[in-house]
Amino acid sequence: MIAWGPGGSNEKGAHRMPTGELTELTRTEVADFFRPNFWPNTPDILPEHLQYGGRPVFMIRAVLAATLSSSYGIYGPAFELCVTEAIPNKEEYQNSEKYEIKLWNWDAPGNLKDFLARLNTVRRDNPALQTTWNLRFHSVDNESLLFYSKASDDLSNVILIVVNLDPHHTQSGWVTVPIQELGISPEEPYLVHELLGDEKYIWQGERNYVSIDPHRTPAHIFRVRKRLKRETDFDYFL
User: Fold this and answer.
1) Using CA of residue 13, residue 129, residue 22, residue 79, what is the dihedral sign?
2) 8-22, 118-132, 216-230: range with highest mean pLDDT
3) Which residues is 175 bridged to in the sheet?
4) Quick check: helix, strand or coil at residue 60?
5) pLDDT of 149-191, one tens digit each?
6) How many angstroms separate the CA atoms of 224 and 151, rounded?
7) What 3-state class would DSSP assign to 42?
8) CATH code 2.60.40.1180 region(s) in the chain
9) How far apart are CA 39 and CA 62, in angstroms?
10) CATH for the stretch 128-236
11) DSSP output for 113-167
12) Taking the model in full, what pTM does it have?
């Protein structure tokens, strides 16, 4: 089990990701015997940026844990309710549930129930997200954005994920999609279906633009549809 999340802050208030360590977990012999289980929080650990990042940083960590690893968990309801109260100068919950029985209001304002339910539905419906070894990181021209993909062996299920690591500000940039690896030619348009918000976009070529407001939804999870719609393609008709 890894109690895990973004690394140290940069000058923009965003958080860097340990992409080298994640690549080692998925692209080297370590993957033969180690299966990561990502936890954005635990009963013992309330990371500092969860204490100060607000609701968006809870959503950011949930998306990262749920899409980078095939196995993830949360300590809820403290996570679902975005609890931030910590022992002063410590990464530990104030009035921890380890030491007392607590009654929670699961419907408290700002809860993440619907967001986490949607995130888990996306994981259930997309086999590419149900394994870890297929994780690949890709280029994006904004260090506050993280861009990576997962795909099934036969490329029938291709998922592109873009996460805004800055919980305070909208971040935008150009992502570089590995179209050659996906069997898409440079002149061929393709559809990307954003699974958290249900928006659909037509992209073409490698470089495509994204803009992510963390106070709305701090990440995009795209399913790639290589072939554009026809009138009979009701499954992804625009």
Assistant:
1) positive
2) 118-132
3) 140, 208
4) helix
5) 999 999 999 999 999 999 999 999 999 999 999 999 999 999 9
6) 10
7) strand
8) 128-236
9) 8
10) 2.60.40.1180
11) HHHHHHHHHHHHH-GGGG-STT-EEE-BS-TTEEEEEEE-TTSSSEEEEEEE--S
12) 0.86
